[in-house]
Specification:
Number of strands: 12
Strand order of the largest sheet: 1-2-3-4-5-6-7
Number of helices: 9
Order of helices and strands: HEEEEEEHHEEEHEEHEHHHH
Shape: elongated
Structural class: alpha+beta
Helix content: 25-40%
Radius of gyration: 23 Å
Length: 327
């Protein structure tokens, strides 16, 4: 039975580094994964419970806990007749604690939903396509989280039309994605554009800001399907390969960054202001950046950097009044 085949189960777990049997229905698993800014190895057990032949079972994963926190996830799986095929229906629930719980319920829940979807999609592919089930180590992919998700999975035909079609940094992109996929997840996980950062999951920090159809938006608040048909520019596409954008140069020259985590979002939000046609002065810069948080610089040099970049671009700038330093 596939559920007892370690080779099948190991292939279905993203980032699986170790998979060792404790019994015929329980395995010790090590997964290297990331949830937002937390990246770590997670160790725990995977077990198959409440099996009813040809009807369903319960799949349970439980982490051992550690510096990154702990998690537990169960998936109730039902097998249903669908004509000549068998439909696999699952309902997954998860909970986390420690640092993982501090990241933000929406991001963690979204990653948890993705983990369940990928596991069962892969499981269905293994069964449907009679794939090689020899054990192998997969490339780590973000795959740990919490939340609840109900899903139905079947193998996706190769000719299915993409539900997300957009232009990113001048390059056409087509993807078939879960409708819950956030734009920031498409950029970071699907396309590897990791300059767009995830810092809060509450739309407060602005580290994920990108340009969508000419307007600065927080990509953690936009679904990828909502952006379909649009044009996205991330920090990687702001300037050409051989040079920096004036904003990037100004942040460097004016010491507008320290740790740099907030910088891509700050620059993209500033770019939105400079492209808007608004008057560039202290007040408009503060307004444009009020949704972006920096924990290092105190904002003074960031404001100076935006003023400097505007001057370099030939935009009229009303200088900050002498002695005024507060953002």
């Amino acid at each position: 039975m596939a559920l007892n085949n370690p080779g099948v189960l190991e292939q279905c777990i993203d980032g699986c580094e170790a998979f060792d049997a404790s019994s015929d229905s329980e395995w010790q698993v090590t997964v290297r994964a990331a949830v937002g800014p937390v990246k770590a190895r997670f160790r725990g057990t995977l077990s198959v419970q409440d099996r009813v032949p040809l009807q369903g079972y319960r799949l349970r994963g439980q982490g051992e806990g550690g510096i990154a926190g702990f998690g537990e996830m169960t998936a109730a799986v039902t097998l249903e007749d669908a004509g000549p095929d068998t439909l696999l229906v699952y309902v997954a629930e998860a909970s986390v604690g420690g640092k993982l719980a501090q990241i933000g319920s929406r991001l963690v829940g979204s990653v948890g939903a993705r983990m369940a979807d990928r596991f069962f999609t892969r499981f269905n592919e293994v069964l449907s396509q009679d794939m090689d089930v020899t054990r192998s180590t997969q490339t780590p992919v973000p795959s740990v989280g919490s939340g609840g998700v109900t899903g139905v999975t079947q193998a996706t035909p190769a000719d299915v039309d993409a539900n997300v079609v957009l232009t990113i940094n001048g390059i056409p992109v087509r993807r078939q994605l879960d409708d819950r996929t956030l734009l920031v997840e498409l950029l970071r996980r699907e396309l590897g554009l990791t300059g767009t950062h995830v810092g809060c999951d509450t739309s407060q920090c602005g580290a994920c800001t990108v340009r969508l159809d000419g307007v600065a938006v927080k990509s953690c608040t936009v679904l990828a399907v909502q952006a379909s048909g649009g044009e996205v520019v991330s920090i990687e596409g702001l300037a050409g390969q051989a040079h920096m954008h004036p904003l990037q140069k100004a942040f460097m020259q004016c010491h507008g960054l320290q740790c740099g985590f907030c910088t891509p979002g700050m620059i993209m939000a500033s770019d939105g202001l400079l492209r808007s046609g608004q008057r560039i002065d202290h007040a408009s810069i503060c307004t444009a950046l009020e949704g972006n948080i920096c924990r290092c610089t105190g904002y003074i040099n960031i404001i100076r950097a935006v003023e400097h970049a505007a001057t370099e671009l030939g935009l009229p700038v009303e200088a900050t009044p002498h002695g005024r330093t507060e953002p």
